[in-house]
Amino acid sequence: MATRKGLDGYFMKYGISKTDIDIIENVCQAADVESDWLEEEVLAVYQKRRNSGAKMTVDSAYKILNTALNKL
Fold first, then answer.
1. Which residue of 2, 45, 49, 60 has the fewest C-beta atoms within 10 A of its own C-beta?
2. Nearest Cα to Cα of residue 68 among 9, 1, 36, 10
3. pTM, 2 dp
């Protein structure tokens, strides 16, 4: 997702950097899940936690992903 001016659309929408997106995508790959269909659920929660000042790690991303998967 990129805008015409080259700004990352995920950053524009969620305030999440490419590095953070890469973490989420890696977690999805490790869980053998398509990241596209979890995008809203995962990114919204991830953004909220990041904005609260919580340190985000791969384990944090796994927990967010698992919570989203449990809602299916």
1. 2
2. 36
3. 0.55
